[in-house]
Design a protein that fits this description.
The complex is a heterodimer of chains A (about 200) and B (about 60).
Chain A lengths: L11 H22 L4 H6 L2 H4 L2 H15 L4 H31 L4 H8 L2 H17 L3 H30 L11 H19 L2
Helix pairs in contact in A: 1-4, 4-5, 5-7, 8-9
Chain B lengths: L1 E2 L1 H7 L4 H8 L3 H8 L7 H11 L7 E2 L2
Antiparallel strand pairs in B: 1-2
The chains are: A mainly alpha (about 200), B mainly alpha (about 60).
């Protein structure tokens, strides 16, 4: 019988994830430091986005090694790539059009809502994952991670909201909810990895 | 809830991967059930029982 107790640990996804975060934040700081705005501030963010491809691929390889991959999870990961690139493209397009055309009225509404569409697609991808996942343990684990993310979001937004009401902190745009939730999801996955569960 | 999954699997010389393949679940699922981190649903428990040809209560035991 194969020795199953030793689950192989694959650190590649963590390293690619760190590289992605460093590249994104580094590029953001660079753009701010040299004073890039609008079109160019988005253009420099495109190369770091490409790191998402090896990140997703290594996560899938890691999942296969650890025996926790499923066809539904692979589809979810691919949809994740679609929404991430779709989001950057939509934001890029919206900022560019806004900079050049300075639209108002219905066109401005359309441009403003455009970056939200890939995020709605992401919400749909989450829903589809939970519908399509036939492995009940993986599904339960994902639901646990999602609830952890939701808990973090509720805590952060409630505390921040009151701090904002008392003028202690600046206003934050409400689209931040999805990134905060996703950070919670990721933290929960890291917590599981560290605790070995 | 305790279970005899690891013993039953060892008797058949199956790896966790072999059992996972037969049950059509991930290897992590088998590992989580074996180590008591996760109690399977009733349908999955029946599938496990059917696979080993045993009643559920001979595989899963009360604490």
């Amino acid at each position: 019988m194969a020795d199953d107790a030793a689950m192989p640990r694959n650190r590649a996804p963590l390293l690619w994830g760190l590289a992605f975060m460093v590249a994104m934040f580094g590029t953001g700081i660079f753009a701010r430091t040299v004073g890039l705005n609008g079109f160019w501030s988005m253009a420099v963010m495109l190369p770091p986005m490409l790191l998402l491809i090896p990140l997703i691929r290594s996560a899938e390889r890691g999942g296969n090694l650890a025996g926790c991959n499923s066809p539904a999870l692979s589809r979810y990961n691919r949809r994740g790539l679609v929404w991430a690139f779709g989001y950057v493209a939509a934001l890029f397009f919206a900022i560019s059009v806004n900079d050049w055309l300075k639209p108002d009225g219905p066109l401005l509404w359309l441009i403003a809502v455009l970056p939200a569409l890939p995020i709605l697609y992401y919400v749909w991808a989450l829903y589809r994952y939970l519908i399509e996942e036939t492995d009940e343990y993986l599904k339960m684990r994902y639901v646990g991670d999602a609830l952890f993310g939701l808990g973090l979001l509720l805590i952060v937004s409630t505390v921040w909201g009151f701090l904002e009401s008392f003028k202690v902190v600046p206003h934050v745009e409400s689209w931040i909810v999805v990134p905060v939730w996703a950070i919670g999801l990721g933290l929960s996955q890291i917590r599981r990895r560290i605790s070995g569960s | 809830m305790r279970n005899r999954l690891k013993i039953l699997r060892a008797e058949r010389d199956w790896s966790q991967g072999d059992l996972a393949e037969r049950l059509e679940v991930s290897r992590q699922s088998v590992n989580a059930i074996e180590t008591g981190k996760y109690d399977p649903s009733l349908p999955l428990a029946f599938r496990i029982a059917d696979l080993f040809g045993l009643p559920i209560e001979e595989i899963f035991l009360r604490d």
